[in-house]
Here is the input.
Amino acid sequence: MRKACKIAAAARALAGQMVRPGVTTQEIDKAVHDYILSQGAEPACLGYNGYPASACISVNNAVVHGIPGRYVLRDGDIVTVDLVAKWGGYHGDCCATFPCGSISAEAQKLIDVTKQSFFEGLAFATRGHRVSDISHAVQTYVESNGFSVVRAYVGHGIGTQMHEEPEVPNYGAPGHGPRLLPGMTICIEPMVNQGVSDVRVLKDGWTAVTADGKLSAHYENTVRITDGEPEILTVNEGF
Ligand code: MF3
Ligand code: CO
Here is the structure.
């Protein structure tokens, strides 16, 4: 699982380096696909419930599950790349939102708050806490910064399956849900909207966009619960 996660994290970093004006989202998807295969792993999103690509690439008002295609990235876009590598029967899942060229101060704040909200949640990913302690910490931080958390999609357990129990929402009161124990592996993945939290799915059947057309950002790591500090498994050691 550690190896699957390292491959996923390196693919995320590779994708992030490619984000610049003039690049198409399908070029980034192809690089992710080829890199994951080059490491002897599988791009687990490809074919998952019929999903047609190796990475989900969600631009600006797209929240999750954007399908890579001919869209040419423009200066000022924010670009979320979400991907899963499977190696040795185990999954590694991670994502981040990257700026394309120079972005607005508000867009940068959205990216920064989203990433920090992951770490606010991570602080509760320790033995004995309950799942919703993570949820509550994420929501509190996001809302105190004037943004909203998406409720239609949640984080999740991960292992031999991409999505396992428990669900890890980014909202809710603390003290609920399963108790965290060493050895559990979960994906903490705040999806944060600039405006309203509501989303709708486009006619392609996949791309979820914000209901009000405002921006959305996403940040995710696969995390292992330990006896002490949580271990972020999706760490990039180079590609
Ligand atoms: N990586 C996403 C997650 O965080 C799942 C991708 S959906 C898929 O759970 F269909 F593309 F696989
Ligand atoms: Co995930």
Notes: Residues 45, 48-49, 51, 56, 65, 82, 84, 93, 187, 189, 220 surround MF3 (ligand 1) (CB under 6 Å). The chain has four helices and 15 strands. The first helix runs from residue 2 to 18.
